[in-house]
Amino acid sequence: LKILIQGETGTGKSHLAKKIHDKSQRRGPFVAINLSSFNPQLIESELFGHKKGSFTGAISDKRGAFEEAQ
Questions:
Q1: With a threshold of 0.90, does the pTM exceed it?
Q2: Angle, CA 36 vertex, CA 34 and CA 38 arms, to 5°
Q3: Distances (CA, A) of 7 to 11, 14, 66
Q4: How many helices (H) and strands (E) would you count in the chain?
Q5: Angstrom distances, CA of residue 23 to CA of 10, 15, 18, 27, 64
Q6: Cα–Cα distance measured from residue 44 to residue 58, given in angstroms and rounded to the nearest whole number
């Protein structure tokens, strides 16, 4: 089941998405991300993660949002 939630900033989209997640059969944690807040050059790293030293500023391994959400 796929759901698209749209609305203006501050209308509670993340809150609604969390409630839907909590009522679903999903077992992983709810992970909310705001793509507009990411630097376009680093969005791949935010979504998929990276290893220490893979680019300037990568001082440690980081799990991406997809891995966090399982």
A1: no
A2: 85
A3: 6, 10, 23
A4: 3, 2
A5: 22, 13, 9, 11, 24
A6: 13
The amino acid at 58:
A
Among candidates 41, 65, 67, 66, which has minimal Cα distance to 54?
A: 41
pLDDT above 80 (res 70) = no
* Residue linked to tokens 């376009």: 40
How far apart are the C-alpha atoms of 39 and 31, rounded to whole Å? 19
Tokens 């440690």 — which residue? 60
- Are residues 33 and 46 in contact, defined by beta-carbon separation less than 8 angstroms? yes
